[in-house]
Specification:
alpha+beta; elongated; six-stranded antiparallel barrel
């Protein structure tokens, strides 16, 4: 009887791990879609499969903290993503927004307990504050008496909000994200490895010493990770513009198909 109980106990972690993988596999694409739809987070410019991968890794790391009290994986995940974000042109607020979307998705879609999850929030915030310290509060100078404000002043004040939103949209469109990519041209030998100059929802722009042709279809690993165990996803992309930048040097605009 003792032997039977021992065997059942030995099998239990395996069953729990299988269930957790299933929940992670279901959560990842749903959270990826939410990140992709976010208008105030530059991570949304990444392909949805890449966002699903990020969300899945975040979920698995948080599960270790929630189920086993092991906060090492989530702290490591935050540090790793912060380093990559800094290298590639994302702002700290983009990473915070990414984490917020993942957190809210886990609570709303997977039923995570908000109160219990607060411990993960604290661990995450501690790492973020260490990596990106918040500037000290600005001490306000003595106020100078202002002239009387007209009755329409509230309209003037409220108009600044659309301007801020417009500035955010301009930041979103005119991004300069430096993401690693690998380009494969069907029928050509070898591949090209470089970095994007800018990224949009539908494509990328990069500079190349190789000459491509307009309407040519390439295969792109975007982003391309060369660390051990990395999963790189390949996308077909069409050359929509070629800009001569100098002798044997071109700017290439691609649209994902």
């Amino acid at each position: 009887m003792a032997q039977k109980i021992r065997l059942l106990n030995d099998e239990e972690p395996t069953k729990a791990e299988v269930l957790q993988r299933k929940r992670s596999a279901k959560f990842a694409p749903q959270a990826g879609d939410r990140i992709r739809a976010a208008e105030n987070c530059l991570f949304s410019l990444l392909p949805v499969k890449e966002l699903s991968r990020l969300a899945g890794e975040w979920y698995d790391a948080c599960s270790q903290a929630m189920l086993h009290g092991n906060y090492g994986p989530i702290e490591k995940w935050v540090r790793s993503q912060s380093e990559k974000a800094t290298e590639q042109g994302f702002a700290p607020k983009d990473l915070r927004q990414l984490l917020l979307i993942c957190r809210d998705s886990a609570i709303e879609l997977d039923g995570w307990n908000r109160d219990i999850f607060s411990a993960v929030d604290e661990a995450t915030e501690e790492v973020l504050n260490h990596l990106h310290p918040k500037p000290p509060p600005v001490v306000e100078e003595a106020k100078v008496e202002q002239p009387e404000v007209s009755e329409n002043a509230n309209l003037t004040a409220s108009s600044s909000e659309p301007e801020e939103r417009g500035a955010e949209r301009r930041r979103f469109v005119r991004n300069r994200l430096k993401l690693p990519i690998r380009i494969l041209c069907p029928g050509a030998a070898g591949h090209e490895m470089t970095y994007t100059k800018s990224v949009s929802r539908g494509g990328i722009y990069y500079e190349s010493y190789r000459q491509y042709e307009k309407d040519q279809v390439l295969k792109i690993n975007f982003p391309y990770w060369n660390n051990p165990g990395a999963i790189n996803i390949e996308y077909p992309a069409k050359v929509v513009r070629i800009d001569p930048l100098g002798e044997h040097f071109w700017g290439v605009a691609l649209d994902f198909q």
